[in-house]
Amino acid sequence: MPSFKYNILCTRPLDSMLIYKAANKGISIDEVSFVETEAIITTDIIEKIKNIATKKATVVFTSMNAVDAVTAQLTQIPDWKIFCVGGVTKETVFNFFGEKSVEGTAKNAKMLAEKIILTGESKEVFFFCGDQRLDELPETLNANDIKVNEVIVYTTRLIPNFIVKNYDGIIFFSPSAVHSFFSDNTIATSVVLFSIGTTTTATIKTYCTNKIITSEWPGKENMIDLVLDYYKT
């Protein structure tokens, strides 16, 4: 049995490779899901996706779940100009649409909106998102006279879990996971919290004053690297 110096709770499942990567550095990671997503496959949504697929459109993704929900309904690659956030969302877009379909990427939704504005080429975008999507991207684009057509393609459900074990750190990937975790749990002031981005960090601050380490880039591997870098000796 390996000897672990630190115990970390991750609020989303991870690839086994990342679990082993941390274990080799003396860090044990437990995975407990606090949110559940489900694609919306109603006739109306399927028709909307297929209709947009016939257009030469500018499309925006800020979530891997949205990419998966949309591509499940596509039988061929549409003529889309795609903007997406980095990390696993970008990788998922690349896997289906190819790198040439991606016009631009950014660290978060706010920066992605600014990149769309800077290109000056799009006056209308189709934003595939979830029912808990944040306001930053559509508000920023609308304020700059870019029409945003939102298509909600998946839902997010909170799954609160009461945690008995004490952890040195906790990893959060979304504001929804933060809400879900703190609905049933409190933590010691010594627990370090690792956040996927500034919006998640802001949400954490509404619940506690613990130390927060915020990732520069989205993605599970980036988050684990953030943890390893913090605890390296």
UniProtKB/TrEMBL annotation:
<dbReference type="GO" id="GO:0005829">
    <property type="term" value="C:cytosol"/>
</dbReference>
<dbReference type="InterPro" id="IPR003754">
    <property type="entry name" value="4pyrrol_synth_uPrphyn_synth"/>
</dbReference>
<protein>
    <submittedName>
        <fullName>Uroporphyrinogen-III synthase</fullName>
    </submittedName>
</protein>
<dbReference type="InterPro" id="IPR039793">
    <property type="entry name" value="UROS/Hem4"/>
</dbReference>
<dbReference type="GO" id="GO:0004852">
    <property type="term" value="F:uroporphyrinogen-III synthase activity"/>
</dbReference>
<dbReference type="Pfam" id="PF02602">
    <property type="entry name" value="HEM4"/>
</dbReference>
<dbReference type="GO" id="GO:0006780">
    <property type="term" value="P:uroporphyrinogen III biosynthetic process"/>
</dbReference>
<feature type="domain" description="Tetrapyrrole biosynthesis uroporphyrinogen III synthase">
    <location>
        <begin position="23"/>
        <end position="224"/>
    </location>
</feature>
<dbReference type="InterPro" id="IPR036108">
    <property type="entry name" value="4pyrrol_syn_uPrphyn_synt_sf"/>
</dbReference>
